[in-house]
Recover the amino acids of this structure.
């Protein structure tokens, strides 16, 4: 697909995301995306993060398979989860579930540094390649157990989890900075999952708010298959 066609498709995708934001405003409390999130979604070439045979579908507003039983999330969900973090230009963000690297690339356009943890080595390698080719030098990817986070660089201003956990991993709560925000899908596979916004007060108290029902692949532990 020529570059001009990708641009038309990207603009169509943005219109659909904006419509979804309006339609879900009563649940999310947000009828529009912040300008910085819109600019990031518009500037990241999603077709560079999907398998070659799926590039013609790259800007459809739906999840796409990327192999190994994993997906690249629906663009609306990527945009919403990013926006719910209220990311700032000096923030340091932890991502759990690198996948293709697309979500990390969106965040990299907005925040100072992204640390991303991926369980599957093959996906981590591919994501690093994608991010390197696009010049993102403020993203670091490691292979590890997402339930354990990445304690070395904690605490984080924000944490985003792109796979569903049965419960919120305690290590991630510990690694969230007071005043920070976490967006995470919670629930079992093949069951209703809840996209939750977690906020941590200055006193360390945890608050949870349900945003939307969602369907994500499960957050697996290293060595669990």
């Amino acid at each position: 697909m020529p570059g001009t066609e990708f641009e038309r498709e990207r603009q169509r995708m943005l219109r659909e995301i904006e419509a979804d934001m309006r339609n879900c405003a009563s649940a999310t409390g947000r009828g529009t995306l912040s300008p910085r999130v819109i600019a990031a979604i518009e500037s990241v070439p999603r077709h560079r993060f999907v398998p070659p045979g799926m590039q013609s579908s790259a800007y459809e507003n739906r999840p796409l398979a990327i192999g190994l039983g994993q997906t690249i999330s629906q663009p609306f969900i990527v945009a919403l989860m990013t926006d719910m973090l209220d990311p700032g230009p000096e923030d340091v963000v932890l991502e759990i579930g690198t996948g293709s690297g697309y979500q990390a690339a969106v965040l990299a356009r907005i925040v100072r540094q992204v640390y991303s943890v991926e369980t599957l080595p093959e996906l981590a390698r591919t994501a690093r390649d994608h991010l390197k080719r696009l010049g993102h030098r403020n993203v670091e990817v490691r292979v590890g157990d997402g339930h354990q986070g990445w304690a070395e660089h904690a605490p984080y201003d924000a944490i985003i989890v792109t796979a569903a956990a049965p419960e919120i991993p305690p290590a991630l709560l510990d690694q969230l900075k007071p005043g920070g925000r976490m967006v995470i899908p919670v629930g079992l596979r093949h069951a209703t999952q809840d996209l939750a916004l977690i906020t941590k007060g200055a006193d360390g108290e945890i608050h949870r708010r349900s945003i939307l029902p969602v369907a994500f692949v499960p957050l697996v532990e290293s060595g669990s298959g």
